[in-house]
Amino acid sequence: MPVKTFRPLTPSSRFSVLAVFDEITKSKPERRLVTTRKKTGGRNCYGRMTIRGRGRGHKQKIRTVDFRRDRRGTEAKVIAIEYDPLRTARLALVEYKDGERRYIVAPNGTKVGDKLQSGTTAAPERGNCLPLKKIPVGLPIHNLEMYPGRGAQLVRAAGTAATLMSRGGGYAVVRLPSGEIRKLNENCSATIGQVGNTDHMNILWGKAGRSRHRGIHPLSRGVAKNPVDHPMGGGAGKTSGGGHPVTPWGVITKGYRTRKKTKYSNRMIVTRRDGRPMKQK
């Protein structure tokens, strides 16, 4: 997917780099597969604000995406490529022979008319969903399951792809886009190919209004506040805060590790994303 730039006739167009929607073939979503998204304003189920700078924005609808691909052995035809406002990847609308329609994350290069299949008998071709034990080593894959039958949880963002490195002992070793090498049950399913919309990383919104349309509010810098309002506030003249960047409640915001050291799935990590081997306890 290419991107487009603009002549700098206005301050916003000077820095805007936006997507070209040439691959989109259907403007309105499938009615039976969408629900209206209720805005939370960054608040949890107790009404407490847990994410600052969220609110308003354009109305959005949630597309129900089939991450399980549980119609095994049945061929489906791609009838449309659609835009999804809630994810970076494009969606492919597929139709089965009995008329049922589902959304899937569109692999890179998928076009209207392509035939897709899932299950152990499917060929290891782009867009087909197979168990890891049936996928040839070295192929790029996406939409990985962490547990068999749960549905895809890994490698779903635009332009991402994992690599199947080896198999043995009932497990498959996969290199994720972050560089982490992890073991997964070989019965977990994955889709062949790379996620589409590969140029999403090159998009620059160009103006604050586009962030407001997405429901993102501006935030005041901590160093611009008074000491009573923020740990980094105050100081004579301009100051960088005099310490590590922190939240208004004193939690470190850069480099602070939030992953639990005793997380159960740590035992499945072979190499961490920083290149160091994972210590097994």
Summary?
The protein is mainly beta. It is built from two helices and 17 strands. It has two domains: 3-200, Nucleic acid-binding proteins (OB fold (Dihydrolipoamide Acetyltransferase, E2P), Beta Barrel), CATH 2.40.50.140; 220-281, Irregular (Ribosomal protein L2, domain 3).
Give an account of the 3D structure.
This protein has a seven-stranded antiparallel sheet with strand order 9-16-10-13-14-15-17, with no helix packed on it. It has a four-stranded antiparallel sheet with strand order 7-6-5-8, with no helix packed on it. The protein has a two-stranded antiparallel sheet with strand order 1-2. The longest helix is centred in the last third of the chain and has 6 residues, at 208-213. The protein has two domains: 3-200, OB fold (Dihydrolipoamide Acetyltransferase, E2P) (Beta Barrel), CATH 2.40.50.140; 220-281, Ribosomal protein L2, domain 3 (Irregular), CATH 4.10.950. It is built from two helices and 17 strands. A hairpin with an 8-residue loop joins strand 5 and strand 6. By secondary structure, it is mainly beta.
